[in-house]
Every structure is written in structure tokens, then in C-alpha cells.
Amino acid sequence: MSIFNELKRRKVFKVGFAYMLIAWLVAQILQLVFESFGTPDWAIKTVLVLLATGFPLALFFAWAYEITPEGVKRDHEVDRSQPITTQTIKKLRRNTTSAEQLNSLIYKSRCKGLANWDLVESILASSARNNPEKGITGVLVVTETHFLQVLEGPFESLNATFERIARDMRHEGTQLISFTEIEERRFADWAMHGIGLFDLNLELKSRLCLKFGEDNGNVRLPSTAHEVMDLLNILLSEEQPAKATE
Length: 246
Ligand SMILES: Cc1cc2nc3c(=O)[nH]c(=O)nc-3n(C[C@H](O)[C@H](O)[C@H](O)COP(=O)(O)O)c2cc1C
Description:
By secondary structure, the chain is an alpha+beta fold. The chain folds into two domains: 3-96, no CATH class; 102-245, Alpha-Beta Plaits (2-Layer Sandwich). It is built from eight helices and ten strands. It is elongated and about 95 Å long. Residues 241-245 have low confidence and may be disordered. Bound molecules: flavin mononucleotide. The site of flavin mononucleotide has 16 residues, from helix 5, strand 5 and helix 6.
């Protein structure tokens, strides 16, 4: 790398230019102030000498140190192959898209055989065992024939949990509805909240069937993220939509 490029990469030119501009401004202002107070000539000369002495120091610091996301570092401690700004942006991006980024995953599947409360409770028991340590929260809606689940948590563990669930022989035809980044959890209080639509009261059942459709006498579980949230809002706002278990 040529000396010119290295000076540019270390922002020596920028710092030098900025220093001269600021020093000139400071000198102008001080000259005005000193004139109006009748300060002796040697005072402004001293300030000019101090400002001039600061110039090589500013260039030296620009050359020797770099401002990084971890603070000010000696230049040799920093990856020289990258321009400083790119490195800072990359570092910031890495922080926000790290494995800690919260995601939400929604899927729907068909139950092998007929679902019942025993099955729901066995799934919720596994969830209570595994989900908290993996940082997973969510909701599971179950009809006699289908599952609909919203899982939320950090990317890696969400992925691993979903893979495990998808291999479960108790269901089939897993259909991914959405997998998106989220800012905050919607179901933070639940390792897994189970809602069984087995013994719905008639009024609620016909309201849900009207809105989402009917499937062999059961409420049809929706296939879009938007409708899933509509369904969950209705179910969770009902005082006792069905027996609900945590
Ligand atoms: C529809 C459905 C949803 C499930 N959800 C979860 C879950 O959120 N967390 C979980 O650990 N297991 C869940 N399971 C169970 C897993 O597939 C698997 O059986 C279980 O995690 C095994 O762990 P265990 O040996 O501790 O029970 C689910 C299974 C089904 C069929």
C-alpha cells in the first residue's frame, strides 16, 4: 500500500484539514475578543503558537490511533486491510444480526390420528422441559386434525427446535407459514401456551368457521401469518375460548 493510501486510510488528511479549519476559526474568534478587550498582542501570538504546535500532534494521533467500535485503539491493533468506516459498519451489523436476534416461526401441520388433550399435554410437557433453556416461547393451537404453532426465540435455537418438532412422528405435512425477525416477543410469558379447539362453545365455533373456514367439522387453521395473528387475537381475548394449558 502506498504512503498516500495509508495516510488516506488513517484519515490523516481529513484530520489535518479539519484541524486547520477549526484552528483558523478559533484564531478569528479570539482575535475579535482580544481586540474588544484590548488584550496585548503577545496573547494572540501565544494562542497562534499553541494552535500551530497542536497541528503536528493532531496528525500524529490520526496516524497512530484509530477509533473503533471497541474504543480508541493503537493502529497496529486494528485490521489494516479494511477501511476504518467499513470495519465499524460491519462490526455494528454483526452485533445486530447475531445469533441473539429474535425470530418468530409459524407453521401448520396435520395430526396423525385424532388429537386430544392427552396429546396436547404431552407436547406441552416436552416444551416446558426444553423451551426455557433454549429461550423459546410460543403458542400451540390444536384442532382434532391439525396443529398450528408460533415459536419465538434466538435464530439458532429456534431453528434447532423446529427441526426436532418437524421430525416428530405424531404429525406430518409440516407447512412453514413464516419465519421472520421480530423486535420483541408476543408470547414472552409462555414456554408454550396450548389452546385446544376440541370443545368450543357453538357461538365461538361458528364465528371462527365463518371467518377462517371449516374443515371436516373443525375450524380450519389459517395459512397466512396475518390470519394466524387474527385467530390468536380472537382466541386469547376470549375469556375461556377452550381449555387452555401452559
Ligand atoms: C405439534 C408439535 C409441537 C411441538 N412443540 C414442541 C416445543 O415447542 N418444544 C419442544 O421441546 N418439543 C415440542 N414438541 C415435541 C418434540 O417434537 C419432541 O418430541 C420433544 O422435543 C422431545 O423432547 P423430550 O424428550 O424432552 O420430550 C412438539 C411436537 C409436536 C407434534
